[in-house]
Amino acid sequence: MTLSLLAELIVMPLIAFVVGLALVLMMRRVRARIERRIGPPLLQPVYDIVKLYAKRTQVSHGIMHDLAIVMLLGGITTSVCFLPVPGLEGLARQGDLLTLVYLMMVPMLGLALGVGSCANPNGSIGISRALTAMLAYDVPFVFVVIGLAVAYGTTSLPEIIAHQQSGGIATWGAAEMPLLAIAGFIAMHAMLGKEPFEIYVAPAEIATGPMAEMSGKYMGALFVMQSFQLYTIGALYVTMFLGGGENWLTFLMKLFAVVFVSVALTNVYGRYKTDKVIRFMWTWPTGIALAGLALVMMH
Amino acid sequence: MSENAGSRNPLQLRDQPETCRTADAEERSAWQRVIGRFADNCRARSLFVLHYCTGCGAIELPPTITSRFDMERVGVSPMVTPRQADILLITGYVALKTLKRVILSYEQMQAPKYVIGFGSCTINGGMYWNSYATIKQLDQYIPTDLFIAGCMPRPEAVQEVFLELMRMIDAGKANAWRDYYRNYDHYLANQQALFGPQWHTPTDIVAEAKHYGLMGPGTTGPHTRLLDQHAEWALDRIPEDYPERGENERSER
Amino acid sequence: MSDVTPKYKGSVLRPLKALANLWREPATLPMEPRPAAPNYRGFHLNDWKLCIGCGTCQEICDNAAIRMVQIPDLPTDAKAGVKPRRPAIDYGRCCWCALCVDICPTGSLSLSREYIHVSSDIDSYFILPDEKGIHGLGFEKGWSKSETSDLLDHQRQEMECLPAEEALSGFGELVPGYDTQAAVLEASRCIQCGMCHEACPTGMNAPEYIRALWQGDREKAVAEIYRTNPLAQVCGRICTHACETACSVGRRGAPVAIRWLKRHAMDSVPPDQIREIAIAGKAEEPSGRRVSIIGAGPAGLTAAFDLAKKGHAVTIYEARSKPGGMMRFGIPEYRLPYHNLDADIDVIRASGVEILCNTAIGRDVSMAQIRGASDAVLISTGLWAARSARVPGTDHPRVLSAIRVLEAITQGEDFGVPRRAVVVGGGNVAFDVARSVARLQKARYGEVAMDVIALEDRDHMLADEEEVREAAGEGIDLFNSWGPKSIQINDGSIVALETVRCISLKDAEGRFHPKYDESTMVSHAADTVIEAIGQSADTSYLGKELVEALEWSRGRLKIDRAGRTSEPWLWAAGDMVEGPDVVHAIAAGHRAAASIDEVLAHMAVKPGNVA
Amino acid sequence: MRPENYKPVRHPPSHEYELYFGPNHPGIEGNYAIRVRLKGDVVQEAITDAGYLHRGFEKIMEERLWVQNVALVPRICVPDPVPMEESYARAVETLGGIEVPERAQWIRVLMLEMSRICAHLFTFGGNAATIGLYTNMFWGVTMRDLFLDIFEEITGARIYHMYITPGGVRRDLPDGVLDRLAAVLDELERKKPEFDDLFFENAVVINRATGVGVLTQAQALAWGVTGPNLRACGLAHDVRRDDPYLVYPALKFDIPTATSGCSLARMHVRRAEVEQSVRILRQVMERLRTVGGPVRAHLPNPLAWNVPAGEAYARTESSKGELAFFAVSNGGPKPWRIQVRGPSQMHGVQVLERILEGARIEDVAQIMFSLDACPPEIDR
Amino acid sequence: MTSQRASVPAQLDHILHEMSEVRVTPKGERRVRVDLAADRLPTLLQLLKGHGGFLHLSSISCVDWPETDEFELVYHVWSYESKMLISAHTLIAKSPGRFVSVYDIHAPAGFYERDIHEMYGVHFEGSPNLNKFILTSWHGPPPMLKSFDTRAYVDETYAWRDYNPQWLKDIAAKGGGIEE
């Protein structure tokens, strides 16, 4: 039992990483197609990460900078272990949705710690924006989570999945709670940090913010984080609203579909200003989520 | 997705013989050679270009990067800060003021890093050969891997320079960056000749060279010794020359 | 006027239409470099067969990107204006403006459609372009010369010419010369390639004086002229201008009017000033050597001037009444007014040369006397003996030689102006005499009746094109490819010259050997026949002893490169030893003077010579 | 892992801080820098720092022949080089009293308007990129490239055409190029709705750009703003109409204006200008099919061309505003003085500093791009 | 376009009448050259702005005339109303090279005065900001002065590349080479 759990804890992040790389590739290809070009070759995400880890020199900005990267990578790998996928439950029964929501904040906090020690004002602005964004999208997201908890009577992810898979599409979260699904999608989109909510990278404003001082292996860690992030957030949405994965095929199809929609949308909008993002997040998605919550409570 | 447009293998060596790779000290064992080979392979296929328009050649970069020539299909993509980038494109003439930033940016980049000189101006002064304001030979100040002829080079030529650089990296030949460590004194001497003996940058190249085992015969010399004299001074305050502080203060209105 | 201020809040849905591109073909081009546009400005091409190495590309280059490279094994031809050098391009400088292509006088330079050169080897950015291009890949020509794209000014400034009617009415000068504006404009056409300098027998610094004229500094121009030519008034009018033949601008347009510019420089500076400029640099101390020169023609005068400036005492012995030689007696006044010639000779006199006129050797003074009084002697007595066609009837008294007629006209002697005359010959002398006599005919009879019979066809005339053209305008009829057959004499006076068709001029070996088609015969009515078919030297004055002592070669005096004969004290120069024109004589005069000066410098001063 | 030289950089511990925009910054157009002092997210003071692209043009132009400078002038402003060539050529023509053949005048207008479209397309792209809408940048640059193909065909070069020369243009148009240009214009008009959907009527873009970087008409006049930026404040001034040159009086075109003077208004004015340029190009192409004759006046040998002494002030409407060349000749073969008055010298320095004050940090890049400042023009 | 107007436009004539010692030369349809003494210049600009609608200072040009040791300052003002450009030329002595700022009349002067100060060393009294701008890394004399020889400076400061490609070696072996 313990041994198989250990194996799962190794296999789950690996799967997440590989799938995440594929998602990154899809993201870049989708972007390229919308921009009327071909896009990167198949293994480009791998090349990028290997290249970054193969840098010969490496600048670091102090012990916090190094620790932050460990924290960041730890956070993302741990959160993956709490996300059940077909056949692998990992720690999903030990934790629940709320645990996951907390864990997903860890990488960002880690990043904040690291960037803080870089003393790059762009980085500082970036990370403060990232935390602001978190504040913005967490409000609707928390309502969505509450809605789910109320609707299913549990926050355990395997149980949520089981409930959704009980009656086909009709029992999917998205079908039962469309308003919450919409609000959840917007919040998730913001979590991915995509336009119009891409406020903390914003190259033209703050020179990629938190990433400004990241080089070599640290940048590589961020690239790894990106692929995990796409996977985690996509998989979480699939788990919450699209019935999870009956098997790997449907799971991946759903996962790619969700991320596809998100990364496609990002290419046709500009980014909002920070204050506008908060205002937007606290009005539209929050409103929808509250309405959805109210509907759920009424049932 | 259609792959037909990207059919040409960018890493196909044209007429470069498989010469001996410059073996690093750590690349001695067979296993390490394999690793090194693999790393070079990936390095060649993933090139991050620093988004810094140093001169007019930068006007041909947007076409190169965007849809018509789409450099991402061979793994070249723009990056915003020097920390993230692998390639420093010197797109044409370099004014004195820019040269300082170019050197700073170059030193902030993480090795292996590559410099490409665009057009005539970087080779021998180009159009501005008799201008008091621009430097004439880029490779005197930072080591340059490749040059492109043209004023300015077309996107196809820029594309070709990336492919050529990839071939060089893949073959382990794009090692100009080592020269900066091994002959730092020479480069520093040229920089100091322009900016005065006070010139120094926040990055301590000599220390880096020591740290990474890249010391060469010319790493230290009379000019790097000048740096030591300024070391104390540099700790205390932000150097006057970087960035142009104090000189630019607006008078009271 | 329209107000375009947006009034709406925009839409969040309309941007989604862009997603349609997910299913569209990308706009990306294939990786292979595209062929460039037909007039693309890529790397240089240079057609080495056309390139003359003039270096104009180097001059126009903004960026000093072009360097001329001397290539020893290339053909060189100073007369045709070809130098053994080719442009090399520094692609560390070039900006592909293609001004070099647009200015190239020959059109040899062009830019190809090749545009990719990537290398870490710095030396590969310095190339010597040829027809194949930088990588020898044979890319097509891109930006190249078109008829309208030339940057050079191909049109010569118009030189006015007296209308034929007016020209015929006297011996007034035909062309008035440039005014200042025209001269500056004409001077501005020069590209300073120096081909003219190489082509000129006396190596005149034409680029320098043209540049000085363009800058408005005529005094400097005159000074430049006098560095190599003391007969500038003469040369500015009647030089055969080898310079203009070699002129690079002339490759595709009209060559720069170098001769007229020289004339303008001389005409526009007052004589006093010219004299001052000319004799500047004269040796202050007399050298104590004495040089005698026989014949005050161009070679003699030039040598005299040079030697006098070196401080030697120079005396010229001239048999005729006035100095100038062929310049005065052989060239009609309308081409070279006597006062201009006199001006040049005045300058030479001012340099300290003594000219003794009406002093014939053998008659007034003997060769031995001259030799005894001098450290060195230069003979430059020209070609004054006329040749004859020797066809039946040429011994008639009204068969005159051109040189005698011209001389008589200059002297004002009456040789009997013919009512109808035929000139035999196709060279400049033939036209000089024909046109001079025509003027006299016009004055005396009110009409011109003059035929010129030339052996050569129209395209191979020896005379200058403008001479032929102007002569036609003056009513002189030219008959090409005809040779004299006989002279019809009736009652002791000539009635006609019979001519036959000339089929070929030269035999298989290229020697002069005309062939005639005897079946065609044309008769030219005339009362006088003037022969202008060449002259020879008369060296009888040298004395039998000296003639025997000297070495001869094919009837000509044998001299070394500098003009020194086999007798160490005797030099010869000018037409009598080598032809054919004034400027060559000047060049020979310079050479002889230099040689004499060098020899004199090593010679002990004769006692009693010190002035 | 850490080099021994690492030294922490000290920052003033304050709620006010400084941020360098540029020279190496994606939010900067070209190689330029703005130092902004911030309080929170709001700019307290902005100080521009130029000279990164200084090549001493005005100095080296004095060292070169009049004709050689033809190669130099387009390099003063990279995104919009043709007006530079035109201004310089016209200044020399005024000095030398040279009459430009009619066909050459039409060709020059063709070049100028194509260049304007290119520059505006580039600006749309850059402007969109500052707010993260990269798709529009990719499209804009790609569309611009089609025009560059036409430029290449006419002039033999994509960017630096060096085509307009004193006295006319260097070559006549190649055969069939007008048909190909017509096809490109059709393509542009076909794509226009797509650009509108994606950019000009995108709610996010409008939200970002409305009311940002507002310049009132009074301010614009006082600060010497010209071109689209001035027209976006409601003043319909255009050098092409008010100080006409070439054959512009014979052409029909509108001068689009807007009233709000904000970033969005500026972009919409530019968008309308592209439409007008297409309209002009269509008329020019029509005329070029009939107007014949030479394309270059007969000029002296460039190596020895003394331009008569005097001075000339040649103004041109570039894509960024009023461009002027002040040329002084002392009657010599080289210019005695050439001064370049670039429109960005106004709106890229003082005006930018002014309107950045009080702007939010998010808008700094957007304001700079919406003003369309061209740093090489400032630096020269 | 190049037709020469016979006289100064009436409206302008009216303004310039108030000024004495001003030479007015029409230079073209929309160009007028005005020559005046340096001390009168601000008055002229003020008058033109106030009465003629010459609101737009297009630029200020400086020309160095070493023979007379003078700077020529040219103020180009444009009127949006009468659509005319007046170029006011004035000469100031090179030393001390001081002049008054017209920033208070035309704000754009701020940039041009700063530029001229940097490039020629002319000091404009009352200009808001004469700090270095473009040439912050330059420590030589004001580069636009005719006495500054950029070619000589470059020759002294930078080395030219000495190419030695194979073809050149071959030619040199035969006795040829690059001509100086």
Kindly list the characteristics that best describe this protein.
heteropentamer; B: Rossmann fold; 3-stranded parallel sheet; 38% helix; globular; disordered N terminus; D: 380 residues; alpha+beta; Cytochrome-c3 Hydrogenase, chain B
CATH architecture verdict of chain D: Orthogonal Bundle
Counted up, domains of chain C total 4
Oligomer: heteropentamer
Largest sheet: number of strands, sense, barrel closure of chain D: 3 strands, antiparallel
CATH architecture of the largest domain in chain C: 3-Layer(bba) Sandwich
Task: Give the C-alpha Rg of chain D.
Answer: 22 Å
Radius of gyration of CA atoms of chain C, rounded to a whole number = 32 Å
Q: Can you give the mean pLDDT of chain C?
A: 83
Task: Determine the CATH topology of the largest domain in chain C.
Answer: FAD/NAD(P)-binding domain
Major sheet characteristics of chain C = 5 strands, parallel
Largest interface: C-D, 52 and 59 residues
Number of helices of chain D: 14
The CATH H-level homologous superfamily of chain D: Cytochrome-c3 Hydrogenase, chain B
Summarize the structure.
Chain A has 299 residues and is an all-alpha fold.
Kindly describe this structure.
The complex is a heteropentamer of chains A (299), B (253), C (611), D (380) and E (180). With 299 residues, chain A is mainly α. Chain A contains 13 helices and no strands. The mean pLDDT of chain A is 83. Chain C is 29% helix and 18% strand. By secondary structure, chain C is of the alpha/beta class. Chain C has 4 domains: 44-127, 2-Layer Sandwich (Alpha-Beta Plaits); 164-278, Orthogonal Bundle (Fumarate Reductase Iron-sulfur Protein, Chain B, domain 2); 286-376 and 537-601, FAD/NAD(P)-binding domain (3-Layer(bba) Sandwich), CATH 3.50.50.60; 385-535, 3-Layer(bba) Sandwich (FAD/NAD(P)-binding domain), CATH 3.50.50. Chain E has a single domain, classed as Beta Polymerase, domain 2. Chain E has 5 helices and 8 strands. A 5-stranded mixed β-sheet of chain E has the order 1-2-5-4-3. A two-stranded parallel sheet of chain E has the order 6-7. Chains C and E meet through strand 3, strand 4 and strand 7 of C and helix 5 and strand 8 of E.
